[in-house]
Model the fold of this input.
Amino acid sequence: MSNDLSPKERMAIERVHMPELPADERSKNFEEVNQGLTPEQAVAEAQRCLQCKSRNCVAGCPVGVSIPEFIDALASDDLPRAAQVLRGDNALPAVCGRVCPQETQCEALCVRGKKGDAVAIGYLERYVADWAMQHPEGLIAIEAPEPTGKSVAVVGCGPAGLTAAGELARQGHKVTIFEALHDTGGVLRYGIPEFRLPKEIIDREVAVLSRMGVTIECNVIIGKTLTIPQLRSEFDAVFIANGAGLPTMLNIMGENLKGVYAANEFLTRVNLMEAGRRADSSTPILQRDEVAVIGGGNTAMDCVRTARRLGAKRAMIVYRRSETEMPARVEEIKHAKEEGVEFIMLTAPIAIVPTEDGWVSALRCQKMELGPADDSGRRRPQAIEGSEFDLPAGIVINAVGTSANPLLTATAPDLTLNKWGNIVADEEGETSIPGVFAGGDIVRGGATVILAMGDGKRAAAAIDKYLKR
Amino acid sequence: MFEVVSNEILAENLHKMVLVAPRIARARKAGQFVMVRLAQGEERIPLTIGDADPEAGTITLFIQAIGASTRKIVDTPVGGSIRDVAGPLGKETHITNWGRVACVGGGVGTAVLFPLVKALAEAGNEITTIIGGRSSRYVILADELGALSKNLLITTEDGSLGSKGFVTGPLGEMIADPACAPKAVFAVGPVPMMKAVANMTREPGIETIVSLNPIMIDGTGMCGGCRVQVGSETKFACVDGPEFDAHLVDFDGLSDRLTSYRKEEAQRHAATDCKIAKEVAK
Ligand SMILES: Cc1cc2nc3c(=O)[nH]c(=O)nc-3n(C[C@H](O)[C@H](O)[C@H](O)COP(=O)(O)OP(=O)(O)OC[C@H]3O[C@@H](n4cnc5c(N)ncnc54)[C@H](O)[C@@H]3O)c2cc1C
Ligand SMILES: Cc1cc2nc3c(=O)[nH]c(=O)nc-3n(C[C@H](O)[C@H](O)[C@H](O)COP(=O)(O)OP(=O)(O)OC[C@H]3O[C@@H](n4cnc5c(N)ncnc54)[C@H](O)[C@@H]3O)c2cc1C
Ligand code: SF4
Ligand code: SF4
Ligand code: FES
Done:
């Protein structure tokens, strides 16, 4: 089959709808919401692509995936080629197809989006990646590279670390990933829930790395078990990708009450430790009828939808701006609403009200209105005098953000940090210590999977250059 | 995988377990702990590194089997292994030579106290160790601590060993006597005990360090679950502690948060009991 439709024919095709589990069914389980396109849907959606010479979409992707090329292969029903193109540009396409904020990246710049709906690049990327996972035989085997005799230590097994490890192994370097937790994937494992990103995908990606000869050592905390100076002396280069795992506190009254969680704790209990997902789970999690989640990003959506799945009758998002300012992916907001999540906008928490015996009884809030735009271009919320009210809640989850965890950097005094504690690195990822590179959230602060991966890729190229010097 | 090379029963429900963990053995300092997860699907729990032998590449844990996770861990036989042991975590104890110090341990806190006493002894301190338990069966590590201390005092609530009463009794006597008053006090044990010690030493202004035991998940400062109020600040015990200035700790808040999962733990405890009972019945 070839992809030779006229522009008119392409324009006539409507954007595909992702098949989803029904909202009332899925809000009681942890199964993946998006079921994936059928082969017919995928090919038809691929045919919507105009194969523009300008390649606008590519400019919107932080790693410059060859979007028209992989879509062309898919539209021609040549999945091995589509997979090959994708793999060349993106180490974790099955992840990115699911979690990238496409509407602000690749799809935002798609020509078809100017009049009507953009090509569903994310869905197509996911389709091709899922196909490739099920058809390893359809892919051209990657030849084992000549070993260079050089070794690289990668700190952290999140998207940045995994990407860098893959790239470096492909160059023939001996790579060891050190991960503090007992399992791989970073936020992909402990943060993003199963219903958005099945953990099997991470397991498969990790298995690919292992086959490429990458060693993964879990339970090694750099800064504690081993230090950066130790790694520097034992390896030829080091890549630090330890993420932004430090919760920001709300600093309001009642934050230490029973029933108040930081998002990381709530999600780690459920995702990494399986609390509430298995009847006999050894790690406990609280369950209450009313759960208030503070924040408007992906983390907040993940918490509120998880709370709903654990049985909350009223699962609420409390956000101090309005819905248009919410940083979460559009699809998460839509899914959350379908699942019965309540959105309480223009509302800021001011205190957590206790019961007599030290549990949460309510979230005390204040109504806000939007004032003039601030530095970030978003309209700044201002409190409305006398608008305080109590929102009944048994659990309050703080999902306002995370910052750099100082555990590692505290033991590497030569590493230059910025005022927020993030590692300072140049465009290639090189830090103030020669041979030590860094990328992902530890450099950027909380960002996205694809930006972290882009950093991993660029740093791997720079490390390769450094090692061959 | 971390191999178990020895597993002795020191007292009822108290095990001394030695594990092969060379990197942790080399890096560890007094006051630090490890996060332990027995197997896939099990809880992560914090346990103090009681001792370490960097040459042999082993660490020693003193584990009191009080709930489902600790019980399963102590059931691991010699030659068996523990899937995950991560550390050393937490800040090391600030050790100097104060001269005369008192070390107070209650229940499993005595195990947590052991590495502190050892480090304090190595720094040349003159140590009075006071340990206590409900009855003689709960008094642990007396010989080991006795060997490191100038004086060892034992209290039991029922008087079955040492003097009858609480550890705060002998400590109060020490503080009241200018010839014995300690320059610093280290206290580890149940929250009410640490709180009582803090209240005794506040007035005379004796530097007092406690090792806190909040519920932990990751142990690396990532989840915020272990937060405790210390003075005007919220601290994460796993990275900022576990040791803190006793005079600043909000003990009531800590003990309240420790009850967060009491219902869930009781259910699980009952479930494991049932399973054991069923297996025995088979
Ligand atoms: C709940 C949640 C939902 C999100 N949803 C999305 C989304 O939908 N789309 C999107 O693009 N982005 C999303 N993000 C952001 C995205 O996940 C992160 O930007 C990305 O994971 C950063 O990758 P990283 O490799 O830099 O770090 P991480 O993924 O944080 O991985 C760092 C790893 O390093 C380990 N580590 C930490 N310290 C040490 C140490 N001292 N020694 C050894 N190992 C260490 C950690 O345990 C972790 O495994 C979300 C984030 C969260 C928290
Ligand atoms: C830094 C640190 C160091 C520790 N060192 C040791 C050690 O060296 N040896 C040792 O035996 N224990 C130690 N503990 C305590 C140990 O982690 C807990 O006993 C364990 O988590 C209980 O798990 P469980 O499933 O067996 O019991 P659970 O079923 O979880 O609990 C049983 C009972 O113990 C109470 N409890 C739960 N968690 C704790 C806790 N963290 N502290 C005290 N009581 C608790 C519960 O409320 C319940 O009543 C330490 C704790 C911390 C934070
Ligand atoms: S990696 Fe993300 S941004 Fe890039 S093309 Fe794929 S979905 Fe779009
Ligand atoms: S901009 Fe849109 S239509 Fe054009 S090539 Fe990219 S995906 Fe296809
Ligand atoms: S245990 Fe998670 S922050 Fe301390």
About this structure: The longest strand of chain B covers residues 2-11. The domain at 2-89 of chain B is CATH 2.40.30.10 (Elongation Factor Tu (Ef-tu); domain 3). Chain B has nine helices and 16 strands. Chain B touches chain A at residues 23-24, 27, 37, 41-44, 68-69, 83-89, 217-218, 220-225, 227-229, 234, 239, 253, 256-257, 259-261, 264-265, 268, 271 (CB under 8 Å).
